[in-house]
Amino acid sequence: MSPPHVFHQLEDPRMTLTHLQRLEAESIHIMREVVAEAEKPVMLYSIGKDSAVMLHLAKKAFYPSPPPFPLMHVDTTWKFQDMYALREKAAQDAGMELIVHQNPEAAERGINPFDHGPLHTDMWKTEGLKQALDKYGFDAAFGGARRDEEKSRAKERIFSFRTATHGWDPKNQRPELWNLYNARKKKGESIRVFPLSNWTELDIWQYIMAENVEIVPLYFSARRPTYEYEGGLFMADDIDRLEKVMGYRPEIAERSIRFRTLGCFPLTGAVESEAATLQEVVQEMLLTTTSERQGRVIDKDAGDASMEKKKQEGYF
Amino acid sequence: MTDPIYKTDALIADDIEAYLEQHQNKSMLRFITCGSVDDGKSTLIGRLLYDSKMIFEDQLAALENDSRKVGTQGQEIDFALLVDGLAAEREQGITIDVAYRFFATKKRKFIVADCPGHEQYTRNMVTGASTADCAVILIDARKGVLVQTRRHSFLCHRLGIKNLVLAVNKMDLIDYDQARFDAIVADYRAFADSIGIESFTAIPMSGLAGDNITTRSDNTRWYDGPILIRHLETTEVNSTANQAKPFRMPVQWVNRPNLDFRGFAGQIATGTVRPGDELRSLPSGKTSKVKSIVTMDGDLDEAVAGQSVTITLEDEIDSSRGDVLATADDPPEVADQFESTIVWMDDEPLVVGRGYWLKLGTQTVSATVAEPKYEIDVNTMEHLAAQRLHLNQIGVCEVTTDKRIVFEPYVDNRTLGGFILIDKITNRTVGAGMLHFSLRRSQNVHWQPTDITRGHHASMKNQTPRVLWFTGLSGSGKSTIANEVEKKLALMNRHTFLLDGDNVRHGLNKDLGFTESDRIENIRRIGEVAKLMTDAGLIVLTAFISPFRADRQLVRDMIDGGEFIEIHVDTPLEVAEARDVKGLYKKAREGKLKNFTGIDSPYEAPEDPEIRVNTVEMTPEEAADYIIGKILPLK
Questions:
Q1: Which pLDDT does position A298 carry in this prediction?
Q2: A10 in a structural domain
Q3: Which chain B residue lies closest to A36 (C-alpha atoms)?
Q4: Domain identity same for A42 and A175
Q5: A91, A282, B28, B501: which has the fewest C-beta neighbours closer than 10 Å?
Q6: What span, in angstroms and rounded, lies between the C-alpha atoms of B349 and B470?
C-alpha cells in the first residue's frame, strides 16, 4: 500500500479542505450512491486521463473492497497500442472485470475513420455503447465527462437519464438539489452518471500529480513516428493498417510529439512538444492558447451545437 | 490587463513547481448568481471567466466572431455569449436552466451556478442555491431594488445562504453616483431586515466596463469595501463552518469485503471524528467507539465535515444504509411528522395525501404531505391560503413519513434537513423540502412492542397473510369475483375478510366525500385496515375501483413485501357500461353524477399487476379459480 498521502493544509485553525479533497469527496459520494441504488452499474473506461482519475476514485470509494462493478471499454479497434496495454493493466490492478465491446456490425462492414467519416464514431461508439449496455443489462454507467469541456455540458446533470432507447431529452432531466440524487427509474431506462462533472482540466492534472495516477505515456512527449493528413499531425501507430485503409503508405517522419486528448489514432491530432514530465505538461497546458477538444475532430462536424446533438443521439 | 491573482502569472513560465505548489492548496467556494435577464448576469460571469484566462484562443476567436454575428454589444466582445449553452436557448437569447461554470484564482477554485431570473424558474434557482456557500444578487443600478431582487434574496435566505453579495451593476450608466448607490443599499437593507437577513456585502460594479470585479476601479474612489473577487476569495465556505457542529454521517453503503471487515461508508455532514470517539447509530440508538477511519492511503487520525470516509467500529452493531452515525451524547432527533417548507418543482401539482418517496440524506421513505398551512408569495413574502402547491410555488406544510427518520432542522444541517420528494409513478423529482421541526405528537408516540407478533397470529391460523386488492371499473365484477374467491378460500379453511364499499363507506369512511383528497384518504384508510388485518394473520380481499396508480402504490408500500397482490379485473368500458348493474353509468352520462370513473374521471389501469383476469372471456367462477390457482399455497 502506498504511504498515507496528505494534502497540504491551509492556514486556518480548522482544517479547510482543499479543492481537490472536496472534489474527491464529492465524486466518491456519487459513486457510492449509484452502487447503493442502481441494480447493475458499470464504469465506462475510455483509457484517457479522465477515465484514469475516475477509476482511481472508484478504487478509493470502495477500499478495501475492489470497485463492485466491471470496467467496460467500448472499443473501435483504432485506439493507440499504448492505450490497449494500459487498459489491461489498469483493470487487473483494480481487481475489476474488464469488458471490451466492439460493435460486430461495424467490424463486419469494415467501418474506419478514413472512408466513413462521422459514421465511424456513430457505429463504433454511439451504437457500440447502446449495444453493450443492452447486452449486459447495465442500468447505470459511469462516464468521465466534465462540465468544463464544452458549453452544452455545463448544464448536464450529474445523473443523466436516458430512455429505454438511450435517448436524452434536455427538457426532461431531474433537478439536483444538495447532494441528493434521485436514481429511481423504470424498467429499461438507464442513467449515465458523471462523477467528474465539477472537475476542470487543471484539477484533473493536479490530481494525477498529487495521487500518482497512472496514465497512458502518450500524454508525455517522446520521439514518435508521425505523418501529416489534411493539415493535421498524426501518429503512425500501426503503419501497415494505415496503408491498407488509406491506399498508400503515408510519409513518416519522426517528431517529438504528445497528445492532449486520446481517441482513435487516425483522428487524434498530435502536438509538437518537448513536455516530457507531468509538470511540463501542465505548464504547457496553462500557457497554451487552444482548448482541449480542438485536437479532436468530433466537435467540428456540425458547428457549435454538435456535442449536444451527439448526446441526444446517445453518444456519451 | 493581467491581474496577478489569475492564472497567467509569471510563475507558470518561470517556476512551474512553485506555481503548482501554490495551486495545490486552494480551497473551493460554490456560489450562485441571481438576476433578471437584463441585469448583466451573463456578462458578469463571462467577465470572471475571461479575466481568469479560462478562455482559450480558439474560444476567444469564436467569441469575437459570435459577438459580431449575434452579440448585443456592437463590435465589442459580448461576454454573455461565453456562458450561453443549449442551442435552443441561444436562439431565444435567454438562459433557461442552471449551468455550472468554473474558474480559479491563486486562492480558490470557484463553481458558479448560473441561475435564471425568470419568475417561472424558481425551481432552477432553488436547485442552484441548495449547494451554494454564497449568493451574488445582481441589481441594475438604474432600476434599484425590484420585485425579483426580493424574490431572489428571499429564496437564497430560505435555502440557508448566509453570505449574500449585493452586486449593484451598471454603475457606469449612472456615472458612478455614490448617492444613488447608497440609496439602493439603504433600500435593500430595509428589505433584508424585514425578512431576517442579518448581513450582506454591497459592491458597486460594472460587468461591461470591469469595475470592481477583478480590479479596483478608479471610478468609485468613494468605495472602500472589497472588490468582488477578493470577497469571494476570503469569505468562509460552509464545509469549514460545519466542522464546529456535532458529528453526523449518513451511512451510504456498508463495506464488507470479508467477514473480518465491516466499514460504514459515507460523507461526513457535520463535525469531526477521531478513532476512540463514542458514536451512536440512529435510529437504533446503539453505541460503539470508532476503531479506525479507513482510506486507501492509510488510516486517518481525524476526518472532518465534507470528507467521504469509511469508519469501522469496535463493536458489531447492526447499521445499514439510511442510518446515521452521530456523536453519542448529542445525537439528532428521530421522528415521523414534521413541519417543513416545500418548493414544488413539477408541472403536475402536489396532491395532498398522495404517497411520495421522500429522500433525505441516505434515507428513502414513503411520505404524505398535508394541505399547506399557507403558501408564500415569493414577490411580497405574504402568506396566502392554499389547497395545493403548483410548479414554482412555495408553501409550509406538515409532512408525515411511514417510518421514523433521523433528521435535524434545515437551518442547523442542510444534509439532515433537506429532502426531495419523488413521484412514485413517474419517478420525477417533484419537490424539495426543508424541515423546520418535528411535531410534538410524533415525539410522544412510542411503538409498544407486543408479545404476540404477527408471525404468531399467522401461524395459529396456519396460513400466510395476503391482501388481494381487486381494482377495476365500476361494474367490472370486482365484488362478485372477490366474493367467489372468499367462498372458495372458506371451503379451504382459510381465514379471510372482504372489505368493500358497503362495509367501509357506511362506517369507517362515512365522513369522506368524493373529492380527490377524500378519495385518496378513503383508499389510505382501507389500506391501513387491511394492513392491521394482515398483522392479525388474515387474508384480506378488497373490492374498490381505486382508479389511481399512485394510491394503489401507497397501499402496496404499506404492506409487507410480497403480501400485496394486485388483481386487475379487466373489463372494457363498453362492457361495464352495458352491464350497468346499478344504473350509475346512465346517471353519469346524463351528467347527474360527477367524477365518475371511466366517464369524466380517469381509470389508471395497473401496468404490471400480479394477476389480471379478463371478465369477457371468463365467468366469475372461472376467474375465481384462476386467482386461487395463482395465490396458492398460502402457507
A1: 41
A2: no
A3: B253
A4: yes
A5: B501
A6: 28
Determine, for residues B302 and A29 on separate chains, whether the beta-carbon distance falls below 8 Å: no
All three cell numbers of B453, joined, read: 407478533
Beta-carbon neighbour count of residue B412 at 10 Å? 16
Q: Residue holding cell 346499478? A: B582
- Please report which helix (H) or strand (E) contains residue A304, including its range: strand A301-304
- Tell which of B377, B411, B444 closes a domain: B444
Q: What percent of chain B lies above the pLDDT cut of 70?
A: 88
Residue of A nearest to B66 (CA): A304
CB pairs under 8 A between A and B: 213
Q: Give the range of the structural domain holding residue B321, as residue numbers without chain letter.
A: 243-327
Burial pattern A11-40, b for ≥16 Cβ within 10 A else e, equals eeebbbbbbbbbbbbbbbbbbbbbbbbbee
Q: Judge residue B8's burial from the number of C-beta atoms within 10 Å of its C-beta, 0-12 exposed, 13-18 middle, 19 or more buried.
A: middle
The whole-angstrom separation of Cα B82 and Cα B110 is: 17
Say which residue, B97 or B93, is predicted with more confidence: B97
Option in A10, A33, A63 nearest B25 (CB): A10
Boundaries of domain holding A248: 217-300
Residue B35 marked ligand-binding? yes
DSSP three-state, residue B396: strand
Residues of A in contact with B256 (CB under 8 A): 65
- Band (pLDDT 50/70/90 cuts) for residue B315 is very high
What is the maximum alpha-carbon separation in chain B?
96
The contacts of residue B538 (CB under 8 Å, 6+ apart) are B461, B465, B495, B496, B497
A76 at B interface, C-beta within 8 A: no
Q: Is B38 annotated as a binding residue?
A: yes
The predicted structure's pLDDT at residue B54: 56
Interface confidence (ipTM) of the complex:
0.88
Predicted confidence (pLDDT) per residue in B468-515, tens digit: 999 999 889 999 999 999 998 888 888 999 998 777 888 888 888 777
Query: In residues, how long is chain B?
Result: 635
Distance from CA of A2 to the nearest CA of B (A): 6
Distance CA A102, CA A88 (A): 16
**What does each C-alpha distance from B97 to A156, A216, B133, B277, B345 come to in angstroms?**
10, 37, 20, 44, 13
What's the pLDDT at B467?
94
| Direct distance between the N- and C-terminal alpha carbons of chain B, in angstroms, rounded to an integer | 82
Element (H, E) at B33: strand B27-34
Q: What residue type is B31 in one-letter code?
A: F
> Which of B193, B214, B236 marks a domain boundary?
B236
> Quick one: B368 and B407 in the same domain?
yes
B257 vs A5, A64, A308: nearest CB: A64
Residue B507 labeled ligand binder: no
Using an 8 Å CB-CB cutoff, list chain B residues near A18: 24-28
Q: Would you call the peptide bond into B283 cis, given omega within 30 degrees of 0 as the criterion?
A: yes
